[in-house]
Amino acid sequence: MAAINKKRKFVADGVFFAELNSFLGKELAEQGYSGVEVRVTPTRTEIIIRATKTQDVLGDKGRRIRELTSVVQKRFNFPENTVELYAEKVAARGLSAIAQAESLRYKLIEGLAVRRACYAVMRFAMESGAKGVEVIVSGKLRGARAKAMKFVDGFMIHSGQPSIDFIDFATRNVLMRQGMIGIKVKIMLPAEYGKRGKMPLPDNVTILEPKEDVTPAAVPVAVPVATL
């Protein structure tokens, strides 16, 4: 295999991840697809699919996951038996922006009112432990003129490193009878669910209780008696 410079490798890895994420997102939308992780080892490539319905991703006797493995292997020219796909259940569905965006998408397709559908998604996310939620729905919601509706609850960070570490973001499109509708979901994750592991926010200040001053007990000192 010809050597590839670092810049081209990073670009190739990014394109591979983006195409894989897009393919799995379309293929496993109904199975609650919530993201993918790629782990490269010297002998093989492991692809971990995160979903809310892992049993549906695996399929009957593992048939579905084998089909997906075969498609990924042929599309990206992996040698035989060098790529493995695994399914991992999402610990907290309410904290996954992708899962909530898909949930909102299906609610709108079923004909639920926009305001009611958005409030249902926000309530579920907040009850799951999210610090804050922001939902934006834009398009021809009612009437001929397009507009955007924004729903916010809780605390949300918009800038700096914490916005990368603690914000889960997803966008989806819904083709309705009146036209295309766009969905954006942002969820502020709690400290224990940060993308880089459990870590506090930079502005989080912990005030410790002052320690009690312990006065040492008086120790009797023997005084020598002068002899006459």
The main sheet comes to: 4 strands, antiparallel
Helix content: 25-40%
Q: What would you call the shape?
A: extended
Low-confidence stretches: none
Distance between the termini: 104 Å
Average pLDDT value? Answer: 85
Sheet/helix structural class: alpha+beta
The sequence of SSEs as H and E is: HEEHHEHHEEHEE
Q: What's the count of strands? A: 7
Q: Cα-atom Rg, whole angstroms?
A: 27 Å
Strand content: 25-35%
Strand order of the largest sheet: 5-4-7-6
Count the DSSP helices: 6
Structure write-up:
By secondary structure, this protein is α+β, with helices and mostly antiparallel strands. The chain is built from six helices and seven strands, in the order H-E-E-H-H-E-H-H-E-E-H-E-E. The protein has helices spanning about 5-25, 55-60, 65-75, 95-110, 115-125, 160-165, and strands at about 35-40, 45-50, 85-90, 130-140, 145-155, 165-175, 180-190. The strands form two sheets. The chain has a four-stranded antiparallel sheet with strand order 5-4-7-6. Strand 1 (about 35-40) and strand 2 (about 45-50) form a beta hairpin. The longest helix is centred in the N-terminal third of the chain and has 22 residues, at about 5-25. The protein is extended and about 110 Å long. The N and C termini lie far apart (about 105 Å). The model has no long low-confidence stretch (mean pLDDT about 85).
